[in-house]
Structure formats: structure tokens, C-alpha cells
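# step 3/5: fold
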Amino acid sequence: MDRSILSETMANLTWREIERLAQKGAIVLFPCDPLEEHGPTMPITVDVYFCLVVTRRIHELLKQQNREAVIAPPNYWGICNPTAAFPGTFSLRKDTLKALLYDILACLKRWGFEHVFLISLHGDPSHRNAVVEGIADARLENGIRAKLIMPYRRARYSGFRGYEHCLLIQPPEQERVWDYYIKMKDYHSGSLETSLMMKYYPEFLDEEATRHLAPTSLDEHDVIKWQSGWSEAREVIPEGYYGNPALIEPLRAEALVESEARSHAELIGSYLRGEYVPPRME
């Protein structure tokens, strides 16, 4: 089995195959989560793998809707302020990320693709806001119909109103899937991500060492320092995680992946049918 992050993407196609897909009106699914540190027992590719697992499942679900789709090679460069002080976290400048996305979307448009849906599960608001701005620039200047799919809670936090042309916002009820992890303050490299790695990429998780990691305990002041990022964040999470990584529950992680993939596929389908209505942002 090919475990490469390029497997099942257009990277393994010939130019003729890519051209035929564009001519058939295939939509593009574009995973867009960055490389960053994920604690002492997981590699820096965790977000990339998480996003790819969800994207591949979206692709399968769209196939069941008889929709032609292709997965673009993942963009694994982004903005990661809370972990930027750790080796292994590649954190770009905002303008760099925007320019990178603009150029990639310009290529897809030039090849004949019209609809591109960017998939990102990364939590840093600086990352997702830069992605939105990069998409907006591309839509304005070359006309590509690109959209980022964004959770309701994160869209509201960033001040989006729902009518932005470069966004598809998940319904508020999808947030319940995440409540379990939010209540336990499992925010980075905790139970969710160790469980995901155990389920989908167990060879890259040091399970024995993970089982001995103590959960974090941050007070309000520590949380503010963590959110501020860089060296202050490293002071409060010196091992690079905020959550309970020892709580490994692969089945729960699998259920979350399935729920997220279905939510994304339904949003894409409703948009392409002209039925998408953004949720009311309260």
C-alpha cells in the first residue's frame, strides 16, 4: 500500500489524464494543512495526514453522488503561530502563503478546472484567514470558483458573516462532533490526533511513549500565553502538546473523520446544485 501523501492525488496522473479530467468538468479537492510539531511522540505531518484522510473520504462520497473529482497534491505550508518556536514547525509569512495559493489556483484555472474546494482542519486563525484572502485574490483576478470549507465556530470567531464568496460554512450542528474534544480542552497533539495516528498511520506513532504522557493543565493566564504563540507558547506547553495524548480512542477518531467528510461532501453537493444557504452567523 502506498502511504505517500501524494497517493490518490493528481500527482500520480499524466498530463493527459489531468487534461481529460478538466475537460469532463471534474472538481478539485485541495488539502491545505501545514507541517508543524505535534508533541514528542508524533511526526510533524499529523495535520497533513488528518486533512488527507478526510479529503480521500470526501472523494469517495462524491463518487457515490456521481460527481467527477480529483485531489490536488496537498499544500503542506502554512501559518502556525502557537507552535512556531518549536523545530519542525514551518510557519510562513501571510503574504507568502497568499501568493503560494494564488499561483496554485492560477495553474488549476489555466488547465481548465473551474471549481476548487480547499479542505483545512488546522486551527490557527492566522492560517485560515490568509487562505481566505489568497482565494479571494485568485477569484478576483482569474475567475476560478475556489472556496474554503470552514467550521461554523471558526468562521464566527474570525468575524465572517456567511455571505463571503470564497467560503462554504458548515452548519452549527456539525460542531457537536467536536464538543467531546473541546470539553476536555484537547486543542493540539492531544487525544484526537494520537487517536487519528493510531487508526490511520500507526507506524508513525510511538504508542508506548504516548501512553505515559500526562495531560496538560493550563490556567487562564497560560491559555492566553499559548494563544499568543512563539516563545511564550513554548513556555506553557514545553513538550509541544495541549490536551491528553495518552487517551487513544481510534474508533472515536474514525467517527469524527466520517462525520467531517460527510459534512464536506454534502456542502459541496448542495453548492453545486445551487442549494447552498450559509448558516446564520449569530
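# step 4/5: annotate
The chain has a mean pLDDT of 95.
# step 5/5: archive (pending)
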